[in-house]
Hints:
There is one protein chain. Strand 17 and strand 18 form a beta hairpin. The protein contains 25 helices and 19 strands. The longest helix has 35 residues, at 46-80. By secondary structure, it is an alpha+beta fold. Helix 6 (211-219) crosses helix 8 (246-256) and helix 20 (536-546) crosses helix 21 (548-558). The protein has a five-stranded mixed β-sheet, with helices on one face. Strands 8-7-19-18-17 form a five-stranded antiparallel β-sheet.
Amino acid sequence: MGGGRGGNPRGADETLHLRVDALRADETMQLRAPAPPKEPTPAGGRADRRRGARSAGRKRSRSRLLGPYARRIAPYARRLKPVYPRPGRTGWRRWMPSWRQWIGGLLTSFGLLGAFLVTAYAMTDIPSDVNSYATQQDNVYFWSDGTPMARTGWVQRQAMPLEDIPQDVRWAVLAAENESFYSDPGISLKGISRALFRTVGAGDTEGGSTITQQYVKNVYLTQNQTVSRKFTEAMIALKLDNKMSKDEILEGYLNTSWFGRGTYGIQRAAQAYYGKDVDKLDVSEAAMLASLLKGAGLYDPTLGKANHARAVERWSWILDRMVKIGKLSKQERAGYTKFPEPLKTNPLYDTGEQSDYLVELAASYAKKAAHLTDKQFDLGGYQIYTTFDRKREKALTDAVAKAREEARDATPEAAQDGHYGAASVAADGRILAVYGGPDHRKQGYNESNATTVPAGTAFLPFVYAAGLEHGVHKTRSGSATPIGPDSVYDGDDAVPVTTPEGPYWDRSGKKVAAHNDGGKSYGKITLREALAKSVNTPFMQLGMDAGLDKVRDTAVAAGLLRSSMGPQVPALSLGTSTPSAIRMANGYATFAAGGNHTEPYSVVRITRNGAPVALNTPRPKRAVAARVAEQVTEALTDSFRTAHPDAAAGRSGVSGKAGGTEKDTAAWYVGTADSVSTAVVVYRIDLAESLEPLPLQGLAGPAHSVPYALWSAATGLG
């Protein structure tokens, strides 16, 4: 070898020549290679050397643990590892995975999908807040005889317990929508797959959902047809099926499903299409309603010939399905060959006219007396049993409608601004009837509850009651002097009003004097006779003698609102206060009740889906002494007999009084018959301009005969 043993090292570009003598065939040549140099010890301190030693130890430990498994798995892994193009294959087969790779990929996919579904199920919670619109119900109002009066709310729905829904109705729905409901896990994989294909592929939005899924969609989710919504629906449905019983889910579904005609739930659907409650449906009718769940817009048979044909076909199919699943015998099926035609229109709609005024009063009272917030009440489900008497309401409404028509013929100019407020209130405070206006949709202003026009001389009984109850003061000091019906006052026209110190002067420096209708003078007259003949001057003076504060307090105790009371000046006694018709009737009812006053109320009972709701019903309170109430009633009886002797003949227990105002802006008649007090007022207001009353201009008829005519019609005396 060139260079010699002890020579200098060769350069990188020099060639090493090895000279070997020729070898014999049986000789062997051995080459000895020097051992590789040892790796240098890593620089650093003792801590670095210890960390390196520990790392090497861990690697050796993992190698010992995983080595056997790795050696076993390695051959299979090498086979699954794709090598492209595949050796030993020709053409397109060179690029196709092997069957082992196909199986491995499929198993991996299933494993990942399973892990994803388990994770999604675990992470999905049943929402704690339900869709308020889906659970919202309507409120039902009933007449005093228990018959339905009106239904209100954003939706028409009344929740029904499952036990109140007949088995035939339940199975008609299950046959139509989900016959395996009681055995499935809450979802249908076949249905979900079909729905996903239609949603993603074909753009079709048809279902493929079980009843549990549909219930989840109705109550917790939206109606959007998206893949994410479908997936969430399925996860919640699975959990709900484990949490709730099947009957609970079915009950919820039947009470939240859309049936068309503005109705949600099987109860309102039965009423809207057949005018009956759900427990009165037969199998044939139930099958027709079940067909609507596929789409009321397509299967309501009243919406066209095509709809009718579809409805008949599906109705027949549902009945056949009920036979197939053993819920209807062939003999029973044979009896249902005629399609059960539903009503042409929804009878549940009963709003816009007088019923709306009644509902307005009852709803306001119900919320106040039951301590319900607007939000609670608007969620619905309440059954409100009112005090309104159907017959009295019809009589009053018909009478006013007739008066309006006659006014349009007699005084067309005055009639266009005419208003008629009326109310009947029982002695125990029950509001039996009101007239609120011609149409609530056109005039939301309730004429029976308005405090816009003065009571006029219809207010005199309260002045009379104040004097009888509290006595009079002729001096500033000392106790009051009792008076009675036979106490005498000056009944002449233009008699100055006096105080213990002398005449009463107004702010303009003029003496205040009272005037009688037509300027008529009556001389000395008893208070009872003065009330019977509606003589004004004695009562203006009586109010001063008893004290205007006593007059005000007596009227309020009897039922008038303090906010409607006029200024505390002598004219207060002649009716400058502006009570509503309801409050005037209530005030007169206090006298009919022997001096006990009960606040007017319009609701006697409330339930929510059958469960009672606590209600604060007003209790009677003593307003005036029984003797005082009797004396006022006697004078009012004389008033009625004097003004209407023919109507009074042969009738007892009837009293009443007309009322007019100084500027002839309102005409009243208020009276009692058979322990029911009725107040009627006729007035004119141009609502487009202001709430200032206008002169009647003959609207109330000759000598203000119209209010009495309406009163007598409402009380059955006309």
